[in-house]
Amino acid sequence: MAVTRTFSIIKPDATRRNLTGAVTKMLEDAGLRVVASKRIHMTREQAEGFYAVHSERPFFGELCDFMMSEPVVVQVLEGEDAVTRNRDIMGATNPADAAEGTIRKAYALSIGENTVHGSDSEENAKIEIDFFFKPEEIVG
Ligand code: UDP
Fold it and tell me: What do we know about how this protein assembles, alone or with others (predicted)?
């Protein structure tokens, strides 16, 4: 299995509850290495641009407001089959459906305030990494 990269966000519900370290530990324990990380307060332009794929969905406005409500931590994660590994440790979008041992099972508050974002494909990982990071900010 090849070493690849994925993009992660520790969302406002987690930074608000001081869970940045706890969430990062679960990512690291799952075999992912943090090769870039920064705490930012998303602008509306960033939130709407990042989630543009969801712009027609009924929850789009609420989702963007939430992502701008408190700081987030954006990260690049590296590891074997990083996209799938990260999706597995994140758990299902709705915490009610998330498996034991996953981040969302442990910490998510609702389907919206669900603690973490993770890219859903290698193609999207590249796009999302480029959205928030310059190449020199990533130190493998
Ligand atoms: N979301 C929401 N309501 C929904 C579905 C999704 O608020 O009914 C939010 C939630 O924060 C989710 C994000 O929109 O993480 C992106 O949705 P997606 O279906 O891509 O889920 P994910 O890939 O994050 O599991």
Answer: Homotetramer.
